[in-house]
């Protein structure tokens, strides 16, 4: 089938997922079946599926099937946006569920499915609910695994089987977070592009950006230190070259997301853009949540053309209308690059490619998505 037809079919499917009962894609059905088969002989199963693979739909279908079998399930996440997203799919499937999340708490005895925001499931709440389950599902599994909060929650819930879902089942050094035999690799970026569920990436790497030397930048954990990076990229020279490269990409007429090395870098870059007459909004953790939400929604509705951020717009951020991604953050962490680069590959009407302007040497040091 021509790629264009796959593209149109995927758009129609996306409408169904948003407005109607989710229709599982073939690979999603395969994942659900393989998860059940794995848990029949093991207590751990990790699904390694790309961004855009529809992990919320997969989770909801697993919950529906386990619920029909009489097995109780807790779905835990530490990403706030994922709770209402999964709840929407469960409701569309007709699956009753409890929610443990500040501002969304909904609890009735007798329900077998529980959506839990990790930050809200503190010791007092765990003691109050005294909840145990048969199956624990952790979305964005790479976040918090082997750390105290998640491990305490898992101990309290006492599941007989654990399912993790993540686009990047690797640690900061690039090593697998579980034995290979416990990981289902299906719905990869390459798979989804070839099957028409993601658009193709187009990479643009200016020669000048490859000539910068980061070898003497200090380390913070397993990655470059923000302070060291800013000495190179938060400078008038780099900023001017970056804006020129963006202008050559016609960024002002595209939905453009810019990823910076830190909050101060993001604010400084936005200030220079505005001085040149370009409108933009900045999102980061030091801004009020209401202001961040309004900026993101303005970008999603195509009212704001340029959105600047740091890691705030990675996990849980979904803006299918993003046409151009500008990466100004060098990183040594493969997982971060995969999470960042995949943001612009989601389907959207009249969008044929996800353009990636890499000014941080990620393509040359970490590879294609």
How would you sum up this structure, described in words?
The protein is α/β, with parallel strands linked by helices. Helix content is 38%, strand content 17%. It contains 14 helices and 15 strands. It has helices at 3-19, 26-39, 55-68, 82-92, 123-129, 148-157, 189-194, 207-210, 226-233, 236-248, 263-275, 289-300, 334-341, 362-366; strands at 44-48, 73-77, 98-100, 113-117, 135-139, 161-166, 183-185, 200-204, 219-220, 223-224, 256-259, 281-283, 306-309, 324-327, 353-358. Strands 3-4-2-5-6-1-7 form a seven-stranded parallel beta sheet, with helices on one face. The longest helix has 17 residues, at 3-19. The chain is elongated and about 60 Å long. 41% of the residues are buried.
Summarize the structure in short.
The protein is α/β, with parallel strands linked by helices and 369 residues long.
Describe this protein with a few key phrases.
elongated, alpha/beta, 369 residues, seven-stranded parallel sheet, single chain, 14 helices, six-stranded parallel sheet, 15 strands
Topology:
Elements: H1 3-19, H2 26-39, E1 44-48, H3 55-68, E2 73-77, H4 82-92, E3 98-100, E4 113-117, H5 123-129, E5 135-139, H6 148-157, E6 161-166, E7 183-185, H7 189-194, E8 200-204, H8 207-210, E9 219-220, E10 223-224, H9 226-233, H10 236-248, E11 256-259, H11 263-275, E12 281-283, H12 289-300, E13 306-309, E14 324-327, H13 334-341, E15 353-358, H14 362-366
Parallel strand pairs: 1-6, 1-7, 2-4, 2-5, 3-4, 5-6, 8-15, 11-13, 11-14, 12-13, 14-15
Antiparallel strand pairs: 9-10
Helix pairs in contact: 2-3, 3-4
């Amino acid at each position: 089938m021509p790629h264009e037809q796959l593209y149109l079919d995927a758009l129609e499917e996306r409408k169904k997922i948003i407005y109607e009962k989710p229709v599982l894609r073939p690979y999603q059905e395969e994942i659900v079946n393989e998860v059940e088969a794995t848990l029949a002989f093991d207590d751990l199963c990790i699904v390694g599926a790309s961004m855009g693979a529809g992990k919320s739909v997969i989770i909801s279908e697993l919950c529906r099937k386990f619920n029909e079998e009489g097995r109780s399930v807790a779905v835990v996440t530490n990403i706030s946006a994922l709770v209402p997203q999964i709840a929407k799919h469960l409701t569309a499937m007709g699956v009753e569920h409890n929610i443990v999340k500040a501002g969304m708490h909904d609890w009735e005895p007798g329900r077998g499915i529980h959506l839990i925001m990790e930050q809200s499931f503190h010791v007092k709440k765990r003691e109050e609910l005294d909840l145990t389950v048969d199956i624990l599902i952790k979305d964005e599994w790479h976040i918090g695994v082997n750390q105290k909060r998640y491990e305490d929650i898992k101990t309290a819930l006492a599941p007989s089987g654990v399912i993790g879902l993540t686009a990047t089942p690797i640690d900061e050094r690039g090593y697998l977070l579980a034995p290979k035999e416990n990981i289902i690799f299906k719905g990869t970026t390459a798979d989804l592009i070839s099957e028409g569920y993601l658009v193709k990436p187009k990479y643009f790497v200016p020669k000048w950006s490859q000539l910068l030397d980061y070898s003497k930048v200090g380390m913070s954990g397993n990655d470059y230190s923000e302070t060291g990076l800013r000495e190179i990229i938060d400078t008038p020279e780099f900023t001017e070259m970056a804006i020129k490269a963006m202008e050559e990409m016609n960024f002002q007429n595209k939905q453009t997301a810019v990823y910076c090395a830190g909050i101060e870098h993001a604010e400084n870059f936005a200030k220079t853009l505005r001085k040149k007459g370009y409108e933009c909004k900045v999102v980061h953790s030091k801004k009020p949540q209401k202001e961040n939400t309004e900026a993101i929604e303005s970008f999603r509705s195509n009212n704001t053309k340029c959105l600047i951020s740091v890691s705030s717009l990675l996990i849980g951020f979904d803006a299918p209308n993003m046409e151009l991604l500008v990466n100004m953050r060098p990183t040594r962490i493969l997982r971060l690059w995969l999470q960042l680069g995949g943001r612009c590959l989601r389907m959207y009407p009249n969008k044929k490619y996800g353009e990636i302007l890499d000014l941080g040497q990620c393509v040359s040091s970490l590879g294609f998505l």
